[in-house]
Amino acid sequence: MSLSLIRTVLLTAFSFCLAARSLSTSVYLQAQAKSKKTLAKSGVKNVVLVDGVRTPFLLSGTTYADLMPHDLARAALQGLLKRTGLPKDAVDYIVYGTVIQEVKTSNVAREAALGAGFSDKTPAHTVTMACISSNQAMTTAVGLIAAGQCDAVVAGGVEFMSDVPIRHSRKMRKTMLSLNKAKTLGARLSLLGSIRLAHLSPELPAVAEFSTAETMGHSADRLAAAFGVSRLEQDEFALRSHKLAKKAQDSELLSDVISFKVPGRDIVSKDNGIRPATMEQMAKLKPAFIKPHGTVTAANSSFLTDGASAVLIMSEEKALAMGYKPKAYLRDFVYVSQDPKDQLLLGPTYATPKVLEKSGLTLNDIDVFEFHEAFAGQIMANLKAMESDWFGQTYMGRKTKVGAPPMEKFNTWGGSLSLGHPFAATGCRLVTTVAHRLQKEGGQYGLVAACAAGGQGHAMVIEAYPQ
């Protein structure tokens, strides 16, 4: 046998061995990947998140100031259509969340959908559940699909704090309604003569609990005090949020943000509330709610924000039939509620163990956590409550503590403190971020949790779609 022939035989054998080894390794890795259980349930439709977008979240009173809520919602819907290439007539239903409603467009879902060019034959309705309004919109979509009513639903949320409804006083409204019904000039003059200067005082909207008359910031301050959360801890967490958001923005990880040409203004393509400061600068701010000894300040609270979000949710079967590669499965979810005075913002603590038990998972199974950051004090109080055996036993009927998420998995692309918090739009941002982080980090399970006014809360488990 010639030397060249021997060399060829040896090279062929070596290549075969490498290929066999590579195939063996590949099969082994696939087996490893498949060894982690899926949350698919027999006889239950798989519901998937195909994609999600949002307008840039902007500080209220800035570039969006002259718009209306349905303008932002329309922009988000159009951005979703463009991102997904979705035929408008393929959508069976549209659900949108909002908290402070514009009177002229009370069903903002319908007005935004028509403005975005969806068929007038596509039903749309609006839900409200405070800061978890778009969470409610998404789970409504999941329910419609699971029930076999729909195959493709668009869900979202919008909040516009630059222009909120301001009402006349109750006495003035009553007089004006009576004036509208008066049939004689004398009756009208009599009513006009009854108007007093005090009647002209407007009723301004307040982010306060109707049942307790307490602002959410006040509740956050008391909650922080109850759990021994210091001002320093709150400022450190807020700074962490801004730094991580800035890093994510600079690294182009916030891919759900779409560019939006504001009529008569510039094109906006980035959130504008991300502002990493220094601990020294933050320490100079005075308490915002409980003065002079409170610990909640403008720097460690989420700010008033304008913005909208939208997600496309489908049955897996329909998504694949239309050629889509989903981002994630939307799995188990729960809603909770508790005392709106002393436990107003503890929704994540109550919801997290319930949704984990429902899905048969433990805290250690979760690769990505995204919790809504209303206030740094609220987040830190929840984390301390979750780590407290006493709280778990006394208030939750548990034998031991819930356990807090590890910080290396927690809100690593920033959160509401830095990205902004348009009340009804945040839920979709949280879910879309979990899906993107799972893809980026190679995890399988993510968990979203949020508190809301009224002492309510939400949690959902998201499972990565196989890549």
UniProtKB/TrEMBL annotation:
Its main location: endoplasmic reticulum. Gene3D superfamilies: 3.40.47.10. Keywords: Acetylation, Acyltransferase, Endoplasmic reticulum, Fatty acid metabolism, Lipid metabolism, Membrane, Mitochondrion, Mitochondrion inner membrane, Mitochondrion outer membrane, Signal, Transferase, Transit peptide. Residues 324-463 form the Thiolase C-terminal domain. It is an enzyme of class 2 (transferase). Its EC number is 2.3.1.155, 2.3.1.16. GO terms for molecular function: acetyl-CoA C-acyltransferase activity; acetyl-CoA C-myristoyltransferase activity. InterPro entries: Thiolase, Thiolase-like, Thiolase_acyl_enz_int_AS, Thiolase_AS, Thiolase_C, Thiolase_CS, Thiolase_N. Residues 1-19 form the signal peptide. It catalyses: hexanoyl-CoA + acetyl-CoA = 3-oxooctanoyl-CoA + CoA; butanoyl-CoA + acetyl-CoA = 3-oxohexanoyl-CoA + CoA; decanoyl-CoA + acetyl-CoA = 3-oxododecanoyl-CoA + CoA; an acyl-CoA + acetyl-CoA = a 3-oxoacyl-CoA + CoA. Heterotetramer of 2 alpha/HADHA and 2 beta/HADHB subunits; forms the mitochondrial trifunctional enzyme. Also purified as higher order heterooligomers including a 4 alpha/HADHA and 4 beta/HADHB heterooligomer which physiological significance remains unclear. The mitochondrial trifunctional enzyme interacts with MTLN. Interacts with RSAD2/viperin. This is Trifunctional enzyme subunit beta, mitochondrial. It comes from Sinocyclocheilus anshuiensis. The gene is LOC107690999.
